[in-house]
Structure formats: C-alpha cells, structure tokens
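quick one before i forget lol
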Amino acid sequence: MDDSFSDALLESLNGPLTDALADPSAGSNVMAFLLVAGLGLGMALIYVPLRFYLTLTARSRRLKLLQRIRRLREELAQPVSNA
C-alpha cells in the first residue's frame, strides 16, 4: 500500500513542468509560457493600481476645476458693489 502511494506521488510530481524546469532545452515552450505569463502578471500588478490612481486623481482635478468655474460664474453674475 505504501509503495503504491509513494509511486503515485512520484508520478504526479514528475510532470511536464518539472521536466521543463530540470532541462530547459527540452521544454522551451513551457518556459516561454511561464516567462510571458510572469511578465503579464508583473505588468498587471503595476498597471492596475497605477491606472486606478490616475483615474482618481483626474476625477479630483476635474471636480476642483468645475467647482472653480461655478464660483467664477456666480461672482460674475453678482452686481459690482461700491465700497
């Protein structure tokens, strides 16, 4: 029972990924995929927070600009007071 379990465990651990990592020339497709997937993950981890931050700051600037425009319009609509 123990022998069959350890054999099954060894077979499951010795898959195509392990072979590619052991001998990179034999599994170039797997290594290329892992490289591209890793780069994509890295780019996503940088791009998503950066895009979120830039979107929030752009909305904040836009809101401040609109509020300033409203204040200037209100000031222009008021009559000039003589002091």
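fyi DSSP finds three helices and no strands in the chain.
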